Amino acid sequence: MADIQIRPLGGEEELATCARMMAASDPWITLGRGFEASYKSIADPIKEVYVALAGDEIAGFIILNMTGPFVGYIQSICVAPNQRGLGVGSQLVAFAEARIFKVTPNVFICVSSFNQNARHLYERLGYEFIGELRDYLVRGYSELLLRKTIGSLDEFHARQQAESPA
Length: 166
Description:
Elements: E1 5-8, H1 11-23, H2 35-43, E2 48-54, E3 57-65, E4 73-79, H3 88-100, E5 106-112, H4 116-124, E6 128-134, E7 142-149, H5 153-163
Parallel strand pairs: 4-5
Antiparallel strand pairs: 1-2, 2-3, 3-4, 5-7, 6-7
Helix pairs in contact: 1-2
């Protein structure tokens, strides 16, 4: 497993590096997302973006959505080509789960139907198939909604209330 450090995205140069990485790899190539769309997605101030560093190099990054109806949605995970297969993606997902499970019992992620390697990773990490969004981003492909849970919202909120000081 790669020795990485995960921290919040740090500035314009890292943002541009991440956007170039995203635009130059699948699934984003197949989905037609170039540099500008990738940059805009990463720069969205509503999202939380974390980078995985292997030394001084950005090994990958993850974008989380912690607002709206799907609080705890992993919007994107991108790993540098030279870092794939070294555990960077798994470490980013584990980091995201630790962050998300503090505020909600569910983690959601979509994976493109053609992205079998990513789907196998998520399933190996305990994600279950929830549903299919046909022709959602581009015609001819589906986005598959996956979820990992530690309980229902009711149970989670009851546990939080029981643990909070009176």
